[in-house]
Amino acid sequence: MSTLLGLIPDTAASALWAMVVASLLPVCMALTAKAFGGFGLADNAHPRDFLQRTTGAAARANAAQQNSYETLPVFLAAVLAAMLFFVPQSIINTLAWLYVIIRIGYCVAYIANLATFRSILWVLSMACSLMLFYLAIRLSI
Q1: Residue 3: helix, strand or coil by DSSP?
Q2: What are the φ and ψ backbone dihedral angles of 114, each rounded to 5 degrees?
């Protein structure tokens, strides 16, 4: 079965790439927060202090970064569990890339200050991870 309309190959490498992209998303949000906040070389001595002082879109990008770090371990564990219990690779890939796409949308919604939409996307991204766990559990019994 071709995943996401044939755009994603049915190989384990695809899920691993989704894990890499998801792992880099918090870094992208940190860079975005710094760019929006006017981060300069002098701020590099204490970058976390700089990010704590930001407001507006920069502060929201920083919050998106923090939330991305918070949900990442659940996603990574879910993909690995699904692979360990031989959930069909096409399903793993679809849910993994769907998670990534939703999380990118989540970050955009957070920066744009779309709180309700952001919350809906958060739930959907967590549903992807929970579905991977559910499928792994189903196959383990």
Answers
A1: strand
A2: -100, 80
The CATH architecture that domain 11-140 belongs to is Up-down Bundle (1.20)
Question: Model-level pTM?
Answer: 0.91
User: Are 34 and 12 within 8 A, CB to CB?
Assistant: no
Transcribe 62-105 into DSSP letters. HHHHHHHHHHHHHHHHHHHHHHHTT--HHHHHHHHHHHHHHHHH
pLDDT in tens, 32-75: 999 998 888 887 888 888 888 899 999 999 999 999 999 999 99
What is the residue whose two structure tokens read 């989540």?
106
Who's near 132: CB < 8 A, 6+ residues apart? 78, 79, 81, 82, 87, 92, 95, 96
- Domain-by-domain residue ranges, the chain? 11-140
CA distance 93 to 121: 19
Q: What is the tens place of the pLDDT at every residue in 82-93?
A: 999 999 999 999
